[in-house]
Specification:
With about 575 residues, this protein is mostly helical. It has 14 helices and six strands.
């Protein structure tokens, strides 16, 4: 009997632990079942993932043909693996057109040092800092190599500065966006009013200074009067649009604040730009590597004057375009993966009742991407890359058929470029929103694109304000990072002796700063787009009373039944606090 009681006591001691575990599992299952996010998914767009893998296999297989030796041509098939450095013998005078280039085993034999497998002088010439040097294009690469060797530490520090500034600006956006947005809008209104006043003053001056019986004077007065009237109409329209859209502008500001909250709650989102930057660096490096293989390929042909030339066949020329398409596709694929990971993470944060209970939503989003939706990203990135390659092909055709005298051809070409550019931007925007739908519901690309287009069409005015005002604020953020980095770089590089091309280094620093800031701002932009899509889905699926909203109180103010929804939420919170 005592043993039975002790066993029962042990069972009673074990039961609370098992009940606790079951309750935690039930809570997790309940959270998943109550969330809008679909956790029961299947693989989407598998065909495009297979096509993507096959595309990579073909690209690798066509590069690396063996250079078979030929006894009639001494330089063909020679083993040059031990001669890794290029030595360029300087020209004796300005009239010399032939420069000797030799592959050497060591630059030290010529009292030089190596940089990018090129032999350059150990001591740079002490030129004064100039925007352009007078050495000509022949020695341009050598001079830039020397500049990089002199300033590589400073350039590295400027790269770090660009990362730090981008990191800081993302955090400050949630606090400064309200002031920044209204300053931009007030600036636009003031600039329009000042412009209209100047047009009317100019018209009055022309009216007074020109005689009434002069035909030219009458035309000038009429022209300036038309300009003033058109400017007045545009200014009135701008003021009316801003006044009517003031609540939607407040929605943009609130979306920026919500994006800041999401990034603060999931700070690992700010690591995504580093992963994206690394992946893009690998992509560019591989593209450049394959481009070197393609451009160095060809059939060695002896000309009639005993000179040797390398002639490419049709396969090698087609491979150039194949490699370029690969560059566009892989770049869009990397950016698409970033969009899906961010969208899945932010959606999991948005549709969580208890946001503090989220463990690691970014890991779950990344896992869902790898397991289910790589094919969807491959599909969307392929569509965008095809438009990009068509634009490049059209530009190449225009270059070969260029004729400045043919105005019709120039006009048609310009219109085609403009239309394709607009279509590409629209396609990228729809693709990004399709990724959001896929990250939330697990739809394939076409269905996700259709649902995203319908959702955006139903909220066209909100989308217009977000894309106009929001994108301009984000552009100012990127411009701020680039401008600060370049200004600091100007002061730093000018202090270095022997730098011959300041502008090359500053352009390099500016491009890198723009790329870094774009990666960080893209996180913020994707977060805003995801929160907006989640906001629209929340409005369509819930009413805030019988079915409570997932959105915050700040966003509830922008729904139609905001007062009733806020009252219902207050009652729910009151009952929860009593319990």
């Amino acid at each position: 009997m005592g043993i039975s009681l002790s066993c029962c006591e042990n069972l009673r001691k074990v039961e609370p632990a098992s009940d606790k575990e079951n309750s935690e599992e039930d809570l997790e299952d309940e959270t998943k079942s109550s969330s809008v996010i679909n956790y029961n998914r299947t693989c989407t767009d598998v065909f495009y993932l297979i096509l993507f893998i096959a595309f990579i296999v073909v690209l690798v297989s066509i590069c690396g043909r063996e250079n078979i030796a030929d006894s009639t041509i001494g330089c063909k098939g020679a083993n040059m693996t031990s001669l890794k450095y290029l030595f360029v013998e300087p020209a004796l005078d300005s009239e010399t057109t032939v420069i000797n280039r030799m592959c050497v085993s060591s630059c030290e034999d010529y009292n030089m040092k190596s940089l990018l497998n090129r032999c350059i002088p150990k001591q740079a010439t002490k030129y004064s800092n100039k925007f352009f040097s007078k050495s000509g294009i022949r020695n341009f690469f050598e001079e830039v190599s020397e500049d990089l060797d002199i300033c590589w530490r400073e350039i590295l520090c400027l790269f770090v500065l660009a990362f730090v500034l981008s990191f800081v600006i993302v955090f400050l956006l949630q606090y400064l966006v309200g002031i920044l947005v209204w300053l931009v809008l007030i600036g636009i209104v003031l600039a329009s009013i000042i412009g209209v006043i100047w047009l009317w003053v100019k018209y009055d001056l022309v009216r007074r200074s020109t005689p009434e019986d002069s035909e030219v004077g009458v035309q000038r007065r009429q022209s300036w009067l038309a300009y003033a009237i058109i400017g007045t109409i545009i200014t009135i329209c701008i003021c009316l649009v801003i006044f009517v859209m003031r609540k939607r502008v407040q929605l943009v500001i609130q979306l920026f604040k919500e994006a800041g909250k999401a990034i603060t709650s999931v700070p690992l989102l700010l690591l995504e730009p580093f992963l994206t930057f690394f992946a893009l660096s690998v992509t560019v490096t591989l593209w450049f590597y394959f481009a070197l293989w393609i451009e160095s390929s060809g059939h060695v042909t002896v000309q009639t004057n005993q000179s040797v030339s390398i002639v490419k066949d049709s396969t090698m020329r087609v491979t150039r375009w194949y490699n370029l398409l690969a560059f566009f596709w892989f770049t869009q694929f990397v950016m698409g993966c970033q969009h899906c990971v961010i969208a899945g993470t932010v959606a999991a944060w948005f549709f969580a009742r208890d946001k503090s209970a989220l463990s690691c939503p970014m890991a779950g989003s990344f896992k869902r991407l790898l397991r289910y939706h790589l094919g969807t990203v491959a599909c969307g990135s392929l569509i965008v890359s095809l438009v990009q390659i068509v634009r490049v092909i059209l530009k190449s055709v225009e270059y070969w058929l260029r004729d400045p005298q043919n105005k019709a051809l120039v006009f048609i070409s310009t219109c085609c470029h403009c239309c394709l550019g607009c279509f590409e931007n629209l396609l990228q925007y729809l693709t990004r929103n399709a990724y959001i739908e896929t990250a939330i519901f697990g739809h394939p690309f076409c269905e996700a694109g259709r649902k995203a287009f319908a959702l955006l069409s139903n909220n066209a005015l909100r989308v217009f304000v977000i894309n106009s005002v929001g994108d301009f604020v984000l552009f100012l953020s990127k411009a701020f990072v680039v401008l600060c980095t370049v200004l600091v770089g100007t002061q730093v590089i000018q202090q270095k002796d022997g730098v011959q091309h300041n502008w090359v280094l500053l352009v390099l620093v500016g491009l890198f700063a723009y790329l870094v800031s774009h990666c960080f701002v893209a996180v913020y932009e994707m977060t805003i787009d995801t929160i907006f899509i989640c906001f629209c889905e929340d409005c369509e699926r819930n009413d805030g009373i019988a079915q409570p909203y997932f959105m915050s109180r700040g966003l509830m103010e922008f729904v139609q039944n905001s007062k009733k929804a806020l009252e219902a939420e207050e009652k729910t919170n009151a009952w929860s606090s009593r319990e």
